[in-house]
Specification:
By secondary structure, the chain is mainly alpha-helical. Helices cover 66% and strands 2% of the residues.
Length: 250
């Protein structure tokens, strides 16, 4: 337990050799091997607590603890996806705390000079993608995940998304859609909402554009297409053409 406490502290270390090369891979490997199977609920709770460490700060090292806590919490959820180890209510609680953190995260730096990757949005989206696979989530919860992605994409922020941020948010969306549980009518309305950015700040418009393009590419070319793929591609083409008038010329 003392070693787990130390590894958890190391998740927030500013040195990437400690954070990326030791703490995260060690915890991830032990979770996958079942070392924490009997303690998974407590470990996940500890990672969920890490999501609020310094939340609201920008430009500080606290982002590492939040971002890498999300990655380890993803591993906890993935382990439960493989074999039921915690109550469904606990997984839903983790999902709620992930969503709350992701929507409130202000530090969107991709790489911090001299300290390595932060990537809070990409890591959070990765966790949502794994959460979408949980058997504890049904149509209402999956619909909420789509709304979380939309709210995050349309949020007023100071930095434009890095490409991996848009890609990972699109990947999370595809994971939800592959469950084939959210009605197409809901998905169609959701896409229209993300595409209607006339009244949002310029950076949010650019982020929405990056996200929609990433989602279209993954939907068109990715494996294991969701049941709504054909109809949704038509909707997305219409939305992208409206947002890009030059594509209608010629």
């Amino acid at each position: 337990m003392e070693l787990t406490t130390e590894l958890t502290r190391m998740l927030g270390d500013a040195d990437p050799d400690i954070r990326d090369a030791i703490a995260y891979p060690t915890l991830s490997t032990w979770i996958a091997r079942g070392v924490y199977d009997e303690l998974l609920s407590g470990l996940g709770d500890g990672m969920a607590a890490g999501l609020i460490a310094g939340l609201g700060e920008t430009g500080t090292d606290s982002v590492f603890r939040r971002s890498f806590s999300a990655l380890v919490l993803r591993e906890c959820i993935a382990r439960d996806n493989e074999r039921p180890l915690v109550p469904g209510g606990k997984v839903l609680e983790w999902g709620d705390r992930l969503a709350t953190w992701l929507l409130r995260e202000q530090d969107l730096r991709s790489v911090v000079p001299g300290k390595g990757p932060a990537q809070a949005l990409a890591h959070g989206a990765d966790a949502l993608a794994t959460l979408a696979l949980s058997p504890h989530l049904a149509t209402p919860e999956l619909t909420v995940l789509l709304d979380v992605v939309a709210d995050r994409v349309l949020a007023s922020v100071a930095l434009a998304y890095a490409q991996h941020d848009a890609d990972q948010l699109a990947r999370a969306t595809i994971a939800v859609l592959r469950r084939n549980a959210v009605p197409f009518s809901v998905v169609e309305t959701w896409v229209a909402r993300v595409g209607a950015t006339d009244r949002v700040p310029a950076i949010a418009r650019d982020n929405a554009e990056s996200f929609l393009r990433a989602l279209y590419l993954q939907l068109a070319l990715g494996p294991q297409p969701p049941a709504v793929r054909a109809d949704l591609l038509l909707v997305m083409v219409d939305v992208l053409r409206r947002r890009n008038p030059d594509l209608r010329k010629g």
